[in-house]
Hints:
Layout: E1 9-13, E2 17-22, E3 25-30, E4 36-42, E5 48-56, E6 61-65, E7 68-70, H1 80-92, E8 94-106, E9 115-126, E10 139-144, H2 148-157, E11 161-162, H3 165-174
Amino acid sequence: MAHNTAPPRTVYEGKYQRMVVRGSWEYSERTHAGGLAAIIIAVTPADEVLFVEQFRVPLQAKCIEMPAGLVGDIDAGESIEASAIRELEEETGWTAEQAEVLMIGPTSAGASNEKIAFVRATGLRKVGEGGGDESEDIIVHHVPRTRAAAWLVEKMGQGYQLDAKLWAGLWMIEHELDGTPRG
């Protein structure tokens, strides 16, 4: 199988992404440190999964997601764990004593170089209201862990777009990466 070795040509560059053409391939690249985002898997002391709801311009729809954010977008030297805790607090009003990177992988390997780190946040403590920064309008949902999957299906039925990574995140709440049950 031949690899496309043509030199990349940037056709557009913005603050967070650039559009690249390499031979016949068109794709986007994240321009911040490492092209990495973190999705935060967080369960409160009351055994509720934290989800966020926000309008996503590319989809022109309300989306349900786990809290997430770019790693290194504010401080290029910030660790994945520190970024995850910062984003969790900013979006949900909860902070974590610890953040553990579970795995890192591409989000859409045929369309972007972006990778996502699944991060498990533990030792949660409520410190604010959340809602995101001044450019965001985030609604925080606290859903009992035992009802989380059913709640997501209900939201899908109501016309919300659901980030497919939600299902992997729910699985990671209950399992270690090797498939063994947590706890």
